[in-house]
Amino acid sequence: MKNTLIALVIAAAAATSASAQSRGDFNLGLGIASVMPKSGNGMLAGGEANIGNDIRPTITAEYFLRDNLGLELLAATPFEHDIHIKGIGFAGTTKHLPPTVSLNYHFPTNSAFKPYVGAGFQYTAFFQEASPLGTLELEDGFGLAVQVGMDYQLANGSALRANLRWMDIDAKATLDGADIGTAEIDPYTLNLAYVIKF
User: Fold this and answer.
1) Average pLDDT of the segment spanning 67-82
2) pTM
3) Less packed terminus of the chain by CB within 10 Å, N or C?
4) Selected residue with higher pLDDT from 37 and 155
5) By the 8 A CB rule, do 95 and 79 touch?
6) CA 11 to CA 69: how far, in whole Å?
7) Which of 173, 164, 189, 13 has its CA nearest to residue 93?
8) β-strand partners of 183
């Protein structure tokens, strides 16, 4: 009985060590995200703008600077959004990429569930804007990004991840070179991923 108990303690310690987020660890996350702009996206061309949602694959890379403290880079394939303006209707589409750098703190726990929080900056690049109204352009820019998430550690050292991120994205818009207002996008991003630990 004593030997069995000792074996269980050693196995539990090994499992905890294997799932710990330690300095020098590197994680790669492969997932899919839904970008959901807030309701009411500012006034464009005299009407309230409404920018649609989109879903695309994502990839994250995180390096642990210290135990439980990771520096993460988020990348994705281009998201595409329809733009509608009240009183006008369909006003165009745009694509964007929001590479984001975050500093994440992973809370140490004694279970397979590992919550974390993060904060950082994103740079949103808009491209391939198209509009039936004329030449539409949205200005690139920087903004804050914050997130909360949860990892579920698997036996092989990998994890399943769910996280919700908010980004501060505002973009000045022009139509045929004339200023038509600022698109206040400020989306929430829901991401589900499989995380591989190296």
Assistant:
1) 97
2) 0.84
3) N
4) 37
5) yes
6) 25
7) 173
8) 171
Q: Which amino acid is at 179?
A: D
- Rounded distance between C-alpha atoms, residue 36 and residue 136, angstroms: 21
Tokens of 177: 């070179």
d(CA 39, CA 194): 30
Mean pLDDT value across the chain:
90
Q: How confident is the model over 10-55, as pLDDT tens digits?
A: 333 333 344 468 898 999 999 999 999 999 999 999 999 999 999 9
Could you identify the residue written with the tokens 């039936």?
132
Task: Give percent of the chain with pLDDT exceeding 90.
Answer: 84
Q: Which two tokens stand for residue 156?
A: 């092989």
* Nearest alpha-carbon partner for 101 in 73, 79, 124: 73
Q: Are 191 and 33 in contact (CB under 8 A)?
A: yes
Phi, psi dihedral angles at 150 (to 5 degrees)? -145, 130
CATH code of the domain made up of 2-197: 2.40.160.20
Close Cβ partners of 96 (under 8 Å, ≥ 6 residues apart): 78, 79, 81, 124, 125, 126, 127, 138
User: What is the end-to-end Cα distance of the chain in Å, rounded?
Assistant: 36
Can you give the pLDDT at residue 198?
A: 87
**DSSP of 29-55:** EEEEEEEEPPS---EETTEEEEE--EE
